[in-house]
Write a structure and sequence with these properties.
It is a single chain. The chain contains 17 helices and 19 strands. The chain is an alpha+beta fold and 745 residues long. Strands 8-7-6-11-10-9 form a 6-stranded antiparallel β-sheet, sandwiched between helices. A 5-stranded antiparallel β-sheet has the order 2-1-5-4-3, sandwiched between helices. Helix 1 (5-40) runs antiparallel to helix 8, helix 2 (50-82) packs antiparallel against helix 3 and helix 3 runs antiparallel to helix 8 (287-335). The chain is rod-shaped and about 240 Å long.
Amino acid sequence: MRLRWVDLVRLRRSRRLVSFINLALVCLGPALAALTYVTLGPLDAGSGSTRLRLVLFSDFIYVTLIVALVLQRVLRIIAQRRQKSSGSRLHLRLTGVFSIMALLPTITVAAFALLSINMGFEAWFSDRVQRVIGASLSAADSYQKDQRRALAEDAEALAEALEIYRRARGVIDLQNFRVFLSDEQVNIQRGLREAFVINGTGDLILRGNRSYLFDYEPPSAQDFTAALTEVLLIEDLPNNELRALIYLSGFADYYLLVSRDIDGNLYGLLDETRETAMLYQQLESERGYELFQFGLIYLAFAVLLIVSSILLALLFAERLSRPIGRLAGAAQAVGEGNLDTQVIEEEGDDELSSLSRYFNQMTRQLKQQRDRLLENTQQIERRGRVFDSVLSSVTSGVFGLDPEGMITFANPSAERLLGKNKTGNSSQLSLAVPEFAPLLERLQNSRSDNLQEEVKILRLGLLESFLVRLAPRRREDGRLEGYVVAFDDVTDLVSAQRSAAWGDVARRIAHEIKNPLTPIQLSAERIRRKFAPQLGAERGKLEQMTDVIIRQTNDLRRIVDEFSKFARMPKLVKKSENLNEVLAAAVTLQESGQPDVRFQLTMPDEDIWAEIDATMLSQAFTNLLKNAGEAIEAGWRSGLGTDKKGEIRVEMQAGQSGLSIAISDNGIGLPQDRSKLFEPYVTTRENGTGLGLAIVKKIIQEHGGTLSLLDAAPFSKGSHPGAKILIDLSNSDQTLMDSEQKEPN
């Protein structure tokens, strides 16, 4: 996939924008966590404020958005993994690893934080701390009780002294009573700062030593009511005073108000100690809730950090796996042959960016090399097609061999001449054509540049002649590259040469023998007529001798006639004839001459009309049928024929593929070198001349057909295979038509 520069720039800009947004979302998590911490402050601080609600709502929106983004990316990764997209497996693994790396520290820190908080709570609320706080609270209470008890006792003692004074004097003189009050105030062991005698409305009756009016604060009505039953203690911490109000039962509506200096700061500390102890007890009772609150707050922080960390892990995993996935997909495309594949080059100088650049450089170089290779291959293919067309057009068979004799090339003519099952690439010449192996071995062992020889090959029962030429192939540096084997089927040429030679011999023999035959026969007849009456008893012997001479002369004349026919075949006189009638007539003639043989004739339903010489073709059919009958008799004599009755099957077939006539018998069969049967003067019968099949072959060839000798399939189970003569007239000038449409001339 090739990207234009504009598309590449636009893609990089969009990726930068997406990366910036993702990074901003990741950084927003810790920022919100810090803002939440600042907003919360101490526990329960500002929990009801609008600001806190906004911050918590922002946290919720952020967590929801990040969780949605994380789920969307995870689902996309899973979908890519199911689709087996390039880099999806690595992306999923990196996402899992980085997510675990983000979760483990957070979970570990959370566990340690909760453990630390719990241990802190345990330390804060330990027995020792509780004892210290309890002791401090007890000390504060004891001090305050002592001060209050002492003041109450002093107030009661002063009140009792005043009561004794009243009973002793009866009538009280206020002046003397004031002196007595001042003296008794001084006599108190711990001393009193002020002493006042007031009535029930707060009016001052008299005052003691150092008891000034500006320091006097009248008690409230509730204080007077409370003082009727017991000593009422009043704390005035701002003025550092502790007052005691007691009712003087011996006086009419008189109260004694005394005060003593105390340390206000100390009392404040006592109150703070008491409040601290109460707060400590409250915290101890709410320790579980506080621990839960701490955990909840930390969980909120942890969720913010975790989701932002997972998003960062997804982004980082995508950053790593995306270029690797693109490289994997591009490598797969290159492996499938698409060398135009280019990947997006990452910005930067890291290894991934370098790898993308190197990959694009590699694919460009591969494409250039492939283009050069394709161009060279096309040139080689063009040359190969020219070479193949040349070799396919030649009639000679051609083999290409490697140095070990393995066939690397065979043209159609080679397969046609030797048979398709004989040749084939990646096979040894010695196995495909064993007859050529000795020539190859001789060429390998010699220093000759070529070798030519005629080789006989037996194929389908026919001994064929091939003119074979072998030559080595060498490279430019002289090293052997292989061999070239060229061969031609010269069987017909050899046969024609032999036929021509035998024809010339036949003409000379016929000329030399035919001339004296008639005088010899006439002389023998004349001797028999002239001398037979004179011999008397020897007459029979003379007639027997002259009959032998006459009979042998007739045999020689018959042989001479056959020589004449073979040497000079009469010119064919072709005309339109019914081939069915010609073949049927020949079969009928032989049926009458061979009564012991059963003939079976099979012909097409329609008549077969052809431009033929009926006389010559009938002679050929008759000769073939006669040979078939003689082969059956030879089979009976040799004992090979197991059938009790001889049978000759004649079948004519006509169709789109051509016309053929097959003559099969269950006789003795054909010899191994059956191809020689077509040669003149080659016969397997005692009285045969060896010219019959040669003449028949010439007649068939004159009609544009071919004659083949084949093995016939056994007519019955266990019988001996006979001979089959196949006449192929596909190339003759026959015309197929119905007898109703065509009549003989």
